[in-house]
Every structure is written in C-alpha cells, then in structure tokens.
Amino acid sequence: MARPDKAAAVAELKDKFSSSDAVVLTEYRGLSVAALQELRRSLGQDATYAVTKNTLTQIAAKEAGIEGLDDQLVGPTALTFINGDVATVAKGLKNFSKDNPLLVIKGGVMEGRLLDADGVKKLADLESREVLLAKLAGGMKANLNKAAYVLAAPASKLARVLGALEAAAQEDPSKIGGAGAPVADQKPETEEAAPAADNNETAAADAADDK
C-alpha cells in the first residue's frame, strides 16, 4: 500500500474509532467469504465489520487516544465498529461465534476503556436498548396512571379523609406534625406569677402587725 493510501486508511480508521460507541476485535481466520457476508448481514445497520491490517489499526487507535490494543492485534483481525445498540451487536457476534467457532472474539473498546473477550460477552448478555426503553416506558405509564387516579379521586372521598384527620387532631394533636401539646395542658403565665403576688400580701400583713 502506497504511503498516501496508508495515510488515508489510518485517517478513516481513526475517525471510526473516535465516532463509534464501541469497537469489537475478532479473529476471522478460516471463515469463508460467504460466512463473512452472512456475519455482516446479521449485525444489522448498527455495525460495520471491516478487515484491517494490524499495523494500520495500531496507528489509528493511538491517534484516537486508545492505548493497549497491541496484545489483541495479533493474527488476522477484523474490527466491528458499533454505532447504536452495543448489546444487540455484541449478542450477534456471540451467537455467530457459537455457530461458527472460527470467529473468535478477542476484545474491544468502549467509551475509551479496553475490554477483554469476557467483557464483550458480558455486553452481549445485557438487555437491548429497545427492551430497556420498553421497561422504562412501562414504569412511567404505571406512575402516571397512579397520579391520574389520585387526581381523579372524588371530592367526597377527599372530604372524608380531611374530616377523619381533623377528628384525630382534636383527640390527639400530637398526631399532626408540629401541633405540639394540647392547649388545655399549657399553663398561662398569669397562673405562674400568682404565687409571687400571694407572698407580697403576706409580707404586708406581717409589717402591719409589728407596728
């Protein structure tokens, strides 16, 4: 490959490394052209499966700020660039490798972090984006239904709840946060000052008796 062609290939790989949600490295040694075509179709539109030269991949990965791929770039290597549902594509690779043992998952990169083969297979065990979105939507719908039920409750039911709360507060104000003690239990300040007044009257009477 001429130098300008190598530079263009490196630039393209670098761009794919930078723009992809994840990249999975596989060994394809022994797979037929027909098998590779079947693999590409099975991965769908969220992935691009490309056979590359290890030396160019090493340069492109480093230029994209990815270090540590050298150990995985041994032997014939193909790159799966994923732009979309990572779990679904990883599941596709894992399932294809079961039926075609010649496809070996080496590892990959996701969000700048290196993955070994087991890490990629764990991604395959995750639920797809569609399933997660469906569960999220289901949970939101359930919460909205609960809120709608409360808002649609009859006014008579709300009045009964408030009436019961008022009756409970009159019986025991401590049931209402911040209510404090019942008014009847609170002694007015004038009653606390009364004993002092009685003492003054007694002292005045004793003074009159001494005269």
Explain what the structure shows:
The protein is an alpha+beta fold and 211 residues long. It has helices at 3-19, 33-43, 54-63, 86-99, 117-124, 129-151, 155-171, 189-210; strands at 22-27, 47-52, 77-82, 104-110, 113-116. It folds into two domains: 1-125, Ribosomal protein L10, N-terminal RNA-binding domain (Alpha-Beta Plaits, 2-Layer Sandwich); 127-163. 58% of the residues lie in helices and 14% in strands. Forms part of the ribosomal stalk, playing a central role in the interaction of the ribosome with GTP-bound translation factors. Residues 169-211 are annotated as: Disordered. Pfam families: Ribosomal_L10 (PF00466). GO terms for molecular function: large ribosomal subunit rRNA binding; structural constituent of ribosome.
In the predicted model, the low-confidence regions spanning at least 5 consecutive residues are 128-133, 178-211
Using the coordinates above, name the CATH class of the largest domain: Alpha Beta
Strand order of the largest sheet: 2-3-1-4-5
Q: Which structural category do the helix and sheet elements fall into? A: alpha+beta
Strand percentage lies at 5-15%
Helix content: 55-70%
Query: Which whole number gives the mean pLDDT?
Result: 75
Question: Which key phrases capture this entry?
Answer:
211 residues, alpha+beta, Alpha-Beta Plaits, 5-stranded antiparallel β-sheet, elongated, disordered C terminus, rRNA-binding, Ribosomal_uL10_CS_bac, Ribosomal_uL10-like_sf
